[in-house]
Amino acid sequence: MALAGDLSEFPLTDLIQLVQLSKQTGGVHIIGQRAGRIFEGWLFFRDGKIIGANMAGSQPLEAIYTFFTLASGPFRFHDDKRIETPTINISNEVLIMEGIMRQDAWARIHEHIPSMTLVPRLVLNPSTGSTEINLEPEEWRVLTMVDGKNMVGQIAQRSGLGEFRTCEIVVQLLQSGLIEMREANLGETLAPEFERIAASFVGGGASALLEEAYRLAGIPDPNRATSAEMLTVVEHFERGAARVLDPARAREAAGRLRACATQHLI
Question: For residue 57, what pLDDT band results from cuts at 50, 70 and 90?
Fold first, then answer.
């Protein structure tokens, strides 16, 4: 089945319904964007029914709902891409309904959190009036990670609650007046993005390879690095990655990192 396009012109809902109608088996490779961030993964079908999804750092169901929030990006169906054991046992109709709800919820979140690189910090003297603030355990968990240094994306990774639920809580804390936001500096933005991209290629060994690359580039604190310095890191990372990946895959990883750093150059 020759099916390829861009999510900006052919939404995921239409894609799912087309695959379901034609009762196809295979996988759809998706590289999508949301708020300047790139997400990559697979959506798997058997006889037109969604049976699984794959995205680095996400459970299968969360990966599917993330796909619904992507505004643009290329996709391509591969009929030779299969998974043997289904990880999703929910009808396409329910997934589409929930996915559209998630899409709408992300749009509302985006009004308060336009970037996952924003850094929340505590308001020293919150004005709550006579209203008593009662926080649930999940909300307390997120609030304890608000230190004026952790970005929203980092809090989401460390909270164990997932990106969507974490952002929901951050918005609630913002609206309650307990926290406020500041812009992250360039290094703070790039360093976690490098970590995320490297992990999608190397897995658990990404941190060690990046630490070695920072050391060889003479960068003691990545959070204070410039884009030009991070480009130097990419060169060292590619050589290190070539020790654990095939050269083509190492070049691809370096290309992603380089593109991430280059877009911040002025």
Answer: confident
